[in-house]
Amino acid sequence: DAPYKLILLRHGESEWNAKNLFTGWVDVNLNEKGEKEAVRGGELLKDADLLPDVVHTSLQKRAIRTAQLALEAADRHWIPVHRSWRLNERHYGALQGKDKAQTLAEFGEEQFMLWRRSYDTPPPPLEDGTEFSQSSDPRYATIPPELRPRTECLKDVVVRMLPYWYDGIVPDLLTGRTVLVAAHGNSLRALVKHLDGISDADIAGLNIPTGIPLYYELDADFKPVTPGGKYLDPEAAAAAIEAVKNQGKKK
Ligand SMILES: Cc1ccc(S(=O)(=O)Nc2cc3c(c(O)c2O)C(=O)c2ccccc2C3=O)cc1
User: Does the beta carbon of 123 lie inside 6 Å of ligand 1?
Assistant: First the structure.
């Protein structure tokens, strides 16, 4: 079979997802539903006998705890964990902490729709020292201040994530390890865009369901043997993708 085994797992529902707030770099926790999704993800790995040898997560507790809960469910508590800001969710800038209504009211429908579909248009930057800013968060102290994002578009996420793919994850794959990446909707979108060669125009439309492991077998050139990978629960994944598509259409 293919030389490299990569599993992607998007964290489950968080306290702010349930309130439909832009979260980004705000470090909110999983809610109970999200915890259950993480456990189920681990059970799916165990049932498929797809046991990770190493896991990579972001610096955000909703991804860190998703990894922990999934590993416990797969009885792989002991494997090494590497954490990087480069796997963090996309920074939503001045939208962090706002809900859909506030965003529409503040920026108008047209700007909202433009942001939603765009690949390279970031929201306004979030001012250092404001309520939902991470400017004084110790976990980012090691990032040179000029590199620290205050807002991001999807293109920015691809640019800051890829160095970690090449320097942090690929070496583990090259040593024959099965790698689990437990991260966020947009950081995983960035990785899938790179792996499957998805266009700038199409990537905004790609949704990765939460809590269902997405398994990629990569060939010697790190190309997916099956484009788009395989979800370990295809029916649940198809239903979740359909639901998000309809939710997006809802006025
Ligand atoms: C917090 C929240 C607001 C709006 C929605 S939505 O139902 O309108 N769908 C939606 C909206 C957006 C987005 C989105 O993916 C989405 O499904 C974005 O990606 C986005 C990126 C940068 C600025 C704004 C947006 C954005 O408004 C979902 C969640």
Answer: yes
